[in-house]
Amino acid sequence: MKENEEDILRKVRRIEIKTRGLSNDIFAGKYHSAFKGRGMAFSEVRDYRAGDDVRDIDWNVTARNRQPYIKVYEEERELTMMLLVDVSASRLFGTRGQLKKGVITEIAAVLAFSAAQNNDKIGCIFFSDRIEKYVPPKKGRQHVLRIISDLVDFQPEGRGTDLNGALRFFTNVMKKRCTAFVLSDFLDFSSSAGDAADAADEGGLSVGFEEGLKIAASRHDVVGIRVCDAREGELPDVGIVEMQDAETGRKVWVDSASAKTRRNYAAYWQRVSSAIEQTLTKCRVDSVEVRTGEDYVAALLRLFKMR
Prior knowledge:
- By secondary structure, the protein is α/β, with parallel strands linked by helices.
- Helix content is 42%, strand content 22%.
- The protein contains nine helices and ten strands.
């Protein structure tokens, strides 16, 4: 059920207070150093000093003033940051007092405020098994608050996940190189929840987004933030339970008291995680895993440090 406007505004305000404080105190400098500008741009000329590179001498100014001057360059700092946000039904899962949706929202807000502090443009693509919404890149606090409001209240039409389609859309709409954060659980497989409990096959799994990720990463600086929940990889012993795949709606009865079932469940998740990690590494995409109920600040700092 859709929340009323007053409730949404209160949630947006709470998220702004928390995440803007983090971006002010922790992430602005880290973000600036981790994500570089497009290159060097001419800034000014000044007197030549001992040790300066003679290749930077401005010969026209030197001739006019009859003493050596050099060109000074500075980094073109302005960047465009794109947030690719997974709004599929699997984000509405969480067993540690927080849904995956909440973690994604807060991380997206921290990144957006960090970018805004560096005067960068921020855009957003909401995707499920289709492109749900595209917010073109713009600057400013009000624009960031609009994105956060969408994150809090957005009601997608689709329930599944087509990360490959989202990456292709991103590549098509963003012609100039930018930094893109993919916030998702990366569960873009053909298998469903029932397979997780029943899976005994030890064969490998193939993700559905490798082609799109490879193309996007060759043109842009793509970073993966995988949000998951501890219970997705561990089935508790609670007897016979009915499980449902949030994205397909498929239901299956599972005997969680069976040690074999629990082992198969855990083994299946390990293969899923391995397939995702291998694909990210193969496409040369830096990534970090964040779990619900855990400190995402430490995870983001690790991500920035590796860059």
